[in-house]
Please model this.
Amino acid sequence: MLINERSGVGVLVFALLFAASPTIAASDYAQECGVEAADKVVIGQKESFYAPAANLIFRFRIDTGATRTSMHATNIEIENFSPEAGDNIGKMVNFITANEHGETVHMREKITHVRQIQNSLGSEMRYSIELDLTLAERDYRVEVNLKDRSLMSDKLLIGRNLLACNYVVDVSIHSTYGV
Model:
């Protein structure tokens, strides 16, 4: 058994809790989606998606550890804002997004969800919208949370909510469709 020498807390307890958490095997995704892994498209670490609502092409980074897709957004303003986050679902949100080339556009979309997002810095509440995305003539409607990604080189992060039923990621490939 592994023990943290400073606190005396058993790391094994953490490992057991983590192992007991529900996970979805690749075969379960295939059953859920009705798609076999062999029928999925292979993509690399970075690709380019077109977002029709923004009329922008975004280079995106694949993050198989992220549950949901995340999009760069600044100046986020909710019309008829309520301090109770859940009360803002269904309201319109205005924000500015930009791709990695600095091309910016003002967007106005309906808030579909408010989610507690875990990341390396802790957790935070984020508003989500539904967004149409296109990659290689394949169109998707996907939940995207809004996050200021100004300090990040990739302004769109693709999570498992888009990957699971559509793609297999080959990390040895930088890009399949060109970036």
